[in-house]
Amino acid sequence: MIKILFVCLGNICRSPTAEGVLRHKLGQNGIRDGYLENIFIDSAGTGAYHIGEIPDKRSRQTAKKYGVNLDEIRARQLTRQDFTDFDYILAMDMDNIRNMKAICPPDQHHKIKLFMEYAEDCPGITEVPDPYTGGIEGFDRVFDFIDRGNNGFLKYLFTHYEL
Ligand code: 4NP
Question: Where do transmembrane segments lie in this chain (predicted)?
Fold first, then answer.
């Protein structure tokens, strides 16, 4: 099984959107994720501010416009165990990477990557910016980045694995 974890700060805007978008794209290819499937997708936040909450309303509304449902996702905090349990641990920005490296076991650092490294059509874009304190237009931008990142990541998965 391939286990993928998306990480941001609060786990209510960017990483749950990335989780939902990848799940949606896999579904469009007839592939389900879950404990009993070949692929498992999850998301977590480096911060503890929103544990147990559903994704931010603005993220849910933006995702819904593109047919992606985030309603079942609940925020949780990243743990040290996650670095052992998951194969790909994909950060939204460099602050996330710094926070992740602070708790990552020394032999698991290779699993940490910037999510946007997988995007093929976003030259110069390395991070998905934190939209939390900005306006609704920031959420559209974040969705667009995440959609492009996941197009590239999906291609990567199909190239490297039999799903
Ligand atoms: P996220 O956005 O990291 O994309 O979930 C944020 C959500 C909440 C906070 C910061 C960023 N916060 O400070 O509460």
Answer: none
Residue indicated by tokens 């391939």:
2
Q: Which atom of ligand 1 is found nearest the CA of 96?
A: 3
Q: How many domains does the chain have?
A: 1
Domain that holds residue 107: 2-160
Q: What is the CATH number of the domain that holds 28?
A: 3.40.50.2300
pLDDT score, position 66 = 97
pTM of the predicted structure, to 2 decimals: 0.98
| b/e map 126-137, b = 16+ CB within 10 Å | ebbebbbeeeee
**How many angstroms separate the alpha carbon of residue 9 from the centre of ligand 1?**
5
Residue list, ligand 1 pocket, CB within 6 Å: 8-14, 45, 49, 130, 132
Ramachandran sector of residue 67 (left: φ over 0; alpha: ψ -120 to 50; beta: rest): left
Query: Over the stretch 75-114, which tens digit does the pLDDT of each residue have?
Result: 999 999 999 999 999 999 999 999 999 999 999 999 999 9
**Segments of the chain scoring below 50 in pLDDT:** none
